[in-house]
Amino acid sequence: MKEFKGKVLFLDRSDINTDEIIPARYLTEITKIALKSYLLEDLTLDTFNPNQDINEKGVIITRANFGCGSSREHAPWALEVNNINVIIASSFARIFRQNIFNCGMCAIELSEEKIEHLFSRYSNKDTFLAVNVTDQIIEIEADGEKETIDLSISEYDSALVKAGGWVEYADKYY
Amino acid sequence: MGKTIAEKIFDNKKKDMPFDGTHVLKLDAVFCHEITTPIAITDLIARGKDRVFNPDKIKAVIDHVTPAKDSKTAEQGKILRDWARRHNIKDFFDIGKNGVCHALFPEKGFVRPGYTIIMGDSHTCTHGAFGAFAAGVGTTDLEVGILKGVCAFKTPKTKKFVLKGELPEGVYAKDVILYIIREISVNGATNMVMEFTGPLVEAMSMESRMTLCNMAIEAGGTSGICYPDQKTVDYLWPFIKDEYSSKEEALLKFQNLISDSDAEYEEVLEYDVSLLEPYVTFGYKPDQVKSVTAMQGTKIDQVYIGSCTNGRIEDLRIAAEILRGNKIHHLIRGIVSPATPDIYAQALDEGIIKIFMDAGFCVTNPTCGACLGMSNGVLASGEVAASTTNRNFNGRMGKGGMVHLMSPATAAASAITGEITNSSIYTSRVKGERE
């Protein structure tokens, strides 16, 4: 199982699409690691600087419909090679969400109210977040204070995360 | 309780249900192209599992960048080509025979009502036009599809769209789908099948149905889907004539799939299309849609007619009718890419290619190319395109470029004037000449 923790990158926008996460001009790469420096290069978001803001982050918190658009698994891979294995959002596009779990990564859906709470309380602070998949809880830490939030991952998604991804799972059962 | 067409397909193709709400389906076809498949192939090799579940059910094409533009795209093509040969995948389409996957594969008869299809390409939803469940997936799902012939999906929820009325002059399937996406938003059908029904869909050609289903993903939809009918049978007949004694028998069988009248839907939305206008996108999301009238006069630099959305013969005919006898604006770069070699050949036969060339268009070989800014018409920063493609995301057709999505008719009219233009000024002229 991967590690699901790290400093949090807050992306305060809905409908962030796959072309923003990794532009098509980099889809000619045939290794995952080659995508590393292009993550979020075309993101339309004021004040966001891909060269500085991604550095040493392990978690993204964002709004609705994250990962809409293309089926490219290059989007999860570009995150993965930057050690970002957890995305928390109020909703995800279907293919992106499935790709994340297929890679043994974590796409966690929280209510809009909880997402709003996370933005208002933490987005201007150095925030550290850890996901415990087995106990289904999120631990958040900022300014020396800790908060715990319950999460819900389906049996199937949880099985994929524990197997290390869909190839491993399917190989065992089909 | 009755069932939707998607639910019936899920029942017919069920392999396993490992958890409540998770359906593992047997696949009838796995489609592959050279952008998302090579990493699946190299991963399978690295795992010591370089196998395919059934070479006859795998169809592959080099379409996104073809002919290769550089060493990297040449390498992607080579990985796919070598793999297809190694595994005796007979339906592999390379230079000379290749075209945009979602136009090529239906044309070759690879899609049937009731089929389950995946591809590492989000516009796989196009094939739902034939009454199939067809979904875009990532490389890992594709990899498992190639290896095992299965894919997992959640229980399909369906949003039904009942389209009534006649399309006004100058309004096409593209305008209808842009309007629907504006109404329900880019998130309006996430995790849902979009079922397109009603008299308008029944009256539509298979090409128009493909345009409609093609953009289901732009509203988040898993698959677009239309009911199989006489037109579906007529289109497929050359490929299925040995399987059925008559067209009637085929139709009867296919129509078993049609949703029951008491099927359960997430939502049923009814639209009177006679009230629609030609539409065009603004901004960077496909639900940012205005009428062409509202956007009239927006300056453009390039016009692109092609893609899996609108690169079929019907689209080229519509555009050519408007371009006939006209020249495109001297500041406009016009690019047309017939979506497959057969479409290209037919357009040549019908004199359509000559009309495009006389008007000042560059005619390219079939490829996805400029649609996603990979080749054959990438925009420079600050440039604006009028395009018949499906995505207007930031940077989609080139970093810093702006894409306005529209129908082939609007794109052709805009090419002539150099700004976003309603095609009616040209179509009424054509009508006048005929009368």
CATH superfamily of chain A: Aconitase, domain 4
User: What is the CATH domain class of chain A?
Assistant: Alpha Beta
The CA-CA distance between the termini of chain A, in Å, is 21 Å
Strand/helix succession of chain A? EHHEHEHEHEEEHH
Instruction: Assign the structural class of chain A, choosing from mainly alpha, mainly beta, alpha/beta, alpha+beta, or little secondary structure.
Output: alpha/beta
Helical residue percent band of chain A: 25-40%
CATH topology of chain A: Aconitase, domain 4
* Radius of gyration of chain B, whole Å: 21 Å
SS content category of chain B: alpha/beta
**What is the count of β-strands of chain A?**
7
Give short descriptive properties of this protein:
heterodimer; A: about 170 residues; alpha/beta; seven-stranded mixed β-sheet; about 30% helix; B: alpha/beta; Aconitase, domain 3; five-stranded parallel β-sheet
What does this structure look like?
The complex is a heterodimer of chains A (174) and B (435). Chain A has 174 residues and is an alpha/beta fold. Chain A has one domain: Aconitase, domain 4. Helices cover 30% and strands 22% of the residues of chain A. Chain A contains seven helices and seven strands, in the order βααβαβαβαβββαα. A seven-stranded mixed β-sheet of chain A has the order 4-3-2-1-5-6-7. The two termini of chain A are 21 Å apart. With 435 residues, chain B is an alpha/beta fold. Chain B has two domains: 267 residues, Aconitase, domain 3 (2-Layer Sandwich); 147 residues, Aconitase, domain 3, CATH 3.30.499. In chain B, 35% of the residues lie in helices and 20% in strands. Chain B is built from 17 helices and 19 strands. Chain B has a five-stranded parallel β-sheet with strand order 5-4-3-6-7. Chain B has a five-stranded parallel β-sheet with strand order 17-16-15-18-19. A four-stranded parallel β-sheet of chain B has the order 11-10-9-12, with helices on both faces. In chain B, helix 3 links the parallel strand 4 and strand 5. In chain B, helix 2 packs across helix 5, helix 13 crosses helix 15 and helix 13 runs parallel beside helix 16. The N and C termini of chain B lie far apart (53 Å). The chains are: A alpha/beta (174), B alpha/beta (435). At the A-B interface, helix 4, helix 6 and helix 7 of A face strand 1, helix 2, helix 3 and helix 5 of B.
